[in-house]
Specification:
Radius of gyration: 27 Å
Number of strands: 34
Distance between the termini: 65 Å
CATH architecture of the largest domain: 3-Layer(aba) Sandwich
Helix content: 25-40%
Largest sheet: 7 strands, mixed
Number of domains: 5
Strand order of the largest sheet: 2-3-1-4-5-9-6
Number of helices: 15
Shape: globular
Strand content: 25-35%
CATH superfamily of the largest domain: P-loop containing nucleotide triphosphate hydrolases
CATH topology of the largest domain: Rossmann fold
Structural class: alpha+beta
CATH class of the largest domain: Alpha Beta
Length: about 625
Amino acid sequence: MLRRTLNLGILAHVDAGKTTLTERLLHAAGVIDDVGSVDKGTTQTDSLALEQRRGITIRSAVVSFAIDDVTVNLIDTPGHPDFIAEVERVLNVLDGCVVVVSAVEGVQPQTRILWRALARLDVPTLLFVNKIDRVGADPERVLDEIEQRLTPNVVPMGSASGLGTRAASFTTFGPADDDLAGRSRAGELHPVFFGSALVGAGVEEVMDGITQLLPTRGDDGDGPLSACVFKIERGSDGDRIAYTRVFSGTVKVRDRFDAGKVTAIRVFSDGDAEQRDEVHAGEIAKLWGLAEIQIGDWLGEPRRDLEHHFAPPTFESVVAPADSADGRRLRVALGRLAEQDPLIDVRQDDTRAEISVSLYGEVQREVIEATLADDYGLEVEFREATTICVERPTGTGEAVEILNTPTNPFHADLGLRVEPASPGSGVAFRSDSNVDPRDAPLAVFKTYDSFAQHMEEYVRVALAEGLHGWQVADCVVTLTQIAYSLADGPPSRRGPMPTARDIKRLVPLVLMQALERSGSVVCEPVFRISAEVPTEATGPVLAALGRLGAGAGTPSPRGELTLLETKLPASCLQELRRQLPGLTGGEGVVDAEFAGYQRVTGTPPVRKRMTPDPLNLDEYLAHVGR
């Protein structure tokens, strides 16, 4: 029988029940005999000791099972917002998704964030309204919230009864017709199921929906190889293991890539990962032997860059070992953790002998601290977290360095222009129409496309530290001039052929001059907050928000509770959370959602550079060489 595959994500706000649903699906498919418990730390996908102790998912996990002729590779993802980067990497390899929503808490902030990312990627998605057995379950209210806050394009697939009791159940309206199934697989409609993963209600219906209403893939083994690495872990002997989704083609043992030679393959199948000599299109496998592989790398032809759908980390903290003699061991350990999560962005200041990491929040910090203690035997101290800002150009600036001049020992002419772009657009690199591709050192880079790709990489690295030390965002960098020296050229251009190293070292020199002429401003992250407080506490909470720099918001009374919605700088968010219990008698709750960056008022904060400053020519050349 020809098998089809479905790479399925399970996504939800923390505590909505996605890991319990995963357990129920595995049990219904016959992969496990007993349903594990999140609270007892006995689930299949929360295998890390730290996950079992804390009762939360920290790392994505893959498990496979069969439904009729479909092999489902299910990826369980973290629900806590501190681990959103783990979810981001998974989104790019999914064929379909189930979003779990609590029938009591309803649509929560993380639910909305996840839904927007799935919509941008056009991932066909079903919804499972979980916990109908809990007191306070209200599926109709939650369905209204889904229509208002997520999408109006939903179709209830049945009705729930016995709400708030262990006898809660789900009854379908009948099998989906072909039109519904087709529109669901295309992502145009989103079927909604109700149930309880804890007692098993509605789970069989969701299983049927997974194979009938989400798109499955046939084998495209004859196509060109295209496979994406979305997760990396280390084995017991320290070797790197790459979790890889194959979109087309085949990866075989002994295949060679830039990152190394494949020495072993384990393909996910029937609740385990079995040893094979090759992995085919549609499948997910663990690959050994790729010593230089990184998250986001492609084997064969890339289909697209791994897109960023969520906010970056907004805090950073210096990490210091309890024993100063453990500095080198700490650097190695954090390097290993950065393989699994590149967004922690380990930065080392050799002058101060300090290491800093980027963080989403307190829970992530606690997890890193516990991991260093458990896995590496390192006791560490995290200093007070500070806000991570960005810089944006304020105008247009241009700079040129001419070869064979006192300020340019790098055997090439280079001109660059920097100008602002729209907020959130990132960094774009392009060539001016006046630049002749034949003027680029094609003997070094082979083709102009290769030269442009390397230039874009050099530009992004150089913009990691701007005039105030923060990463430069939301700008366009344009190549305005390029030339190089020749052994038999005219006197002004005579000299050795440049190397790629010459161009790489010249880019920061020119780019920082251009940025200095354009000027830049420092911008801090802000969050859109929703605070639900007792109505009698509205005045004190509004006063506190004003003192913390929140924008004006209009209270929305809802009986005994009032909803306050406004924006608040990230640097003040933790202080609001500290003050809120005292202001509301412990009854206030606040949810926060990243809302972009705004210009810092007053004196802009400065971040110490970790690399030599190109605007200090003597210092720069002393570090990088002439």
